[in-house]
Fold each of these.
Amino acid sequence: MSVEHSDGIEPEIEERPVDSSEDGEIVEQWKDGEHVAYVVIPAKTGKRHTVVGDLGIAYRTLGELNSGKEA
């Protein structure tokens, strides 16, 4: 499941890069020292999508978003 959102990030959310390739980017969000979610930014659109789940789901969502499928 992904949710598109703006670039406005809560100040207490820390983002850490996970992967960057020609397909796009995946970053991990942390709050108070705990993993919160992943954000995928597909190269095709450049829009941020929050993914709830594990890293495998984030990679699958990135692929789906780049292919034009609904994630």
Amino acid sequence: MSDGNFNRALLPKNELTAGIRAGKAQMRTKAEQAFLQTIKTYYPDLSPEQQESMMKHFKELLK
């Protein structure tokens, strides 16, 4: 029977941090897609170069 204690050496070392990084990457991708959709909705007459410039700036802000 276990009393709730366990040997931490048996647990994988990086599984939690890998999951956090994966979650951050997913949220970053969702944010980029939402921003792109917002640009296309509110500024449909922007050139592709202007859209790319705005996306580049947004990605820099996310870092």
Amino acid sequence: MPQTTLPDYHFLYFAPPLGAEWFFDAARRYWERFRPTVLSDLSFLRFIPRGRSVIVTVVTRRDTVEQIGVELAQVRPDAYYDAVVQDLFADMKAVLNQRAERVWPFGVPLATAQPGPDNRLDPTPGPLISGSPVPTRAPSGFITQTPTPMPTAPVPTPDPGATTTGQEPIQPTPGPLIGG
């Protein structure tokens, strides 16, 4: 795939045994800028339709970079492997922050990689922002609308002059049902 286009799907994967701090601290600015889908298991890539371009950015150390490449090739042979290889946490954070600052989602400049109107490039699937000169996606978000309560029917009040028809309101039993 030429480095002038964005993929249909961009994923971010943290190789085992990297912990959550690698995502929440080291990769925070990278994720905020590009919004890739974070994977916990490479087998999820099997659900992406064939014919779609897929890039998996893998945060890994030198001891697991080859193994992850083999696993990715077994699951999705047509996926592009973007390995970010650093052994130290501070070095990884610096590399990912540099990618975010330069708007280089895959470590190299893209011809179309300019920040969009919301100051970020989002290569994940979604509708394009109309009128945007760069392939910027509409910002994602959460649905926060609270459902409106259903209107309740008014409770009918008994007419004091009406005669009862043998239908009395349900009352609690005076004791246990099984006796005793």
